[in-house]
């Protein structure tokens, strides 16, 4: 938007990065004020335009009345001539002449007002379009500003170079190694506890098939048959 660019160009100069941020903020505030002023001006212009339009409407109504009067008096003049009353017809014609002068004046004033109303309305419409464009540009500028702030925040929260990234990775590796060492120690402690409680010997006995009871269907039948033979 031209207003925004002009403001930034005029103020910025050789400002530093920090100074540019201040300038950008000021430029946005100036642009916001420009938009508010323009909207106030448009409201005032619309109010004035409404009054002008009311005057034009009033003139048009007066003109219609005069045209109706001229038509009525013209019909009366014809009737007077048809009846041979020329003197009355002349008097009526004089009235028609006065009304015609009024008609010309009203017509000129009404046409002038109509032209002015249309011209002002066109200017207002164009100005409204420009204000809407300015609002869009302002919103874009604010979005860009917020984006820059977010990018700076993210950049400040992350390692800025390779050495920092490597230090972070080494720290993570140390944490993972400590966790792995802890898990290994827990497993060793469990092994020692099982050994002391004789659980390993029980495991070996089970693995050798000693002491297990055969609960299969065949062993049950064998026991039944043996008891029957006794």
From TrEMBL:
Region (Disordered), start-end ranges: 175-230
Coiled coil: 28-55
Highest rank taxon of the organism: Bacteria
Composition-biased stretches (Basic and acidic residues): 175-188
InterPro entries xrefs: PspA_VIPP1
Keyword set, alphabetical order: Coiled coil
Family: Belongs to the PspA/Vipp/IM30 family.
Protein name per its UniProtKB record: PspA/IM30 family protein
Species this protein is from: SAR86 cluster bacterium
